Every structure is written in C-alpha cells, then in structure tokens.
Amino acid sequence: MNEISPTRQWRVPAGLPAAKLAGGVLLVALGLLLADGDPVRLVVAALAAAALAGWAVRDLVAPVRLEVDPAGLTVIHGFAGRRRLPWSAIEAIAVDRRPRLGLTSETLEIDAGDSLHLFGRYDLGVNPDEVASVLQAARPSR
Length: 142
Description:
This protein is α+β, with helices and mostly antiparallel strands.
C-alpha cells in the first residue's frame, strides 16, 4: 500500500449551501412577484424553495461526503448519515464520464458490492479524477 495521510476527506464547497439558500429566496421572491393573485404559483415556488433549503441544510449538517484512511472509506449514507466501508468491501473505484447538453459530466463511482456510491464534483469539491487517483493509491494491493 502506498503511504497516505492518516485521514483525507472531501466535502461540499463552502459557498454551495449559501448559493442554494439564495436560490430558494429568489424562488419565493419570483413567486410573490409573478403570482398575480394565483396562490398555486406561490405554493409551487415555496415548495421548490423548501426543497432547495432542505438540500442546503444537508450540505451544512453533513458537508463531508467522502473520507479515506488506511482501513477504508467512510461515505455519506441517507440524508446525513455515515457508512463505513472497509477496503475488503470495495470492488471497484471508477470515474464515469457522460456527455450531457454539450458538456461532459464526471461521477466518481465506488462499488461496494451491495451498494453503489456516486459522487459528483459538487459533492467532492474537486474533480472526481483527482479523488479516484488518491483512492486507488490508498487502496491496499489485493
């Protein structure tokens, strides 16, 4: 196994929850501005804003999405829980690239046999290729 620091973690970029909360406020403002007496428009805007706020709260409560140490990985599980994956449970680590709307999206995939954990750039705060390289280097030889 290559030497790595005792623990390395990747987290949501610090400005992302603020951007989501600002988007929620903007949605409510637009709902108020464009409701034109129609309560349904305002309710839809408020529901979308609440969903964005919930997403931002998750980023604030559990900002660390992935952590690696010599014994294995810790990944986010559910809304804000954690799941420990020993190296023996990890079958594959890969980066999936897909073209979408003229752009290529990259997703880090961690296959743990009974579960698949997916992380994008905004989950990790860096390019998924960089994280995959660190994880591959930290993984003990089979």
